[in-house]
Prior knowledge:
The chain has helices at residues 12-17, 53-63, 81-95, 112-118, 135-144, 159-175, 189-200, 230-234, 238-246; strands at residues 23-24, 27-28, 44-49, 71-78, 106-108, 125-128, 148-151, 179-181.
Amino acid sequence: MTNPGRDSAGSRREFLRQGSLFMAGAAALGAKVPVVHAAEDNTIRLALIGCGNRGAGAVANALNTYQQGPIKLYAVADLEINRSNLLVAALEKQYGNEIDVPEERKFLGFDAYKQAIDILRPGDIAMCTTRAYVRPVHVEYAVSKGINVFMEKPFASDPMGLHRMLRAGEEAEKKGIKIAAGLQCRHSPARKALIDKIQSGEMGELQYIRANRLTSRNWMRDMGEASNSLREKLKLSKTTLMLAVSGNMV
Ligand SMILES: NC(=O)c1ccc[n+]([C@@H]2O[C@H](COP(=O)([O-])OP(=O)(O)OC[C@H]3O[C@@H](n4cnc5c(N)ncnc54)[C@H](O)[C@@H]3O)[C@@H](O)[C@H]2O)c1
């Protein structure tokens, strides 16, 4: 099956020649693509590590950049084969040929990330969307193999992990590899403009910053009298409660 309307994607080389920006996932991988595919075809291959909800969303985001050049999901890695199967089947329905993941490229287990990354080529992308506990290990490995990274937040679950991530970032910079983070706030022009104003001193010396994310989510509705009851609050999700208690919506 071919996805209608997606055949017009130009070749990756043509795209690079035009000097446009290449975007992966919800985020830009950077202002330039430093590594041009050495292989005969210019299709960017994605290896998804962590086949959960966000993984599916990130792949969809990446595939929706098809107008900027050919791109496909090429391998998946997870601890549970059911997760991989469900994700691949769902994406196949929506994206057809752009999901090119036969059984032999569904890798399983704690070392699956290595197998998925090892079959990529320079310029391809490892999408690191497991939970954060193991993210630095996956990102480090991708960078060591010369593979670009899209990663979800949080970036690590402890200070040691964050240090590893910083080192991986330095190595990536030296090698001209791009690491993009899925935290949508990082790609908001409005937030960037605000941060510029803070950093330039235009807003004076700030003593305290509090950020609230205002959305129409369930927990934002008017709860009336129930808003005074802890029991009612407990009906909300754990995350929501945590955010409500900390007052921190970032
Ligand atoms: N930026 C955003 O807006 C946004 C939104 C939702 C979630 N997230 C983040 O994305 C990440 C994933 O969230 P999710 O909801 O998809 O989680 P999930 O639990 O649904 O999916 C994680 C998947 O990773 C797999 N996995 C776990 N350990 C693994 C390992 N060592 N190797 C391979 N696979 C492994 C699990 O089996 C599971 O299928 C989290 O860090 C979450 O905070 C970000």
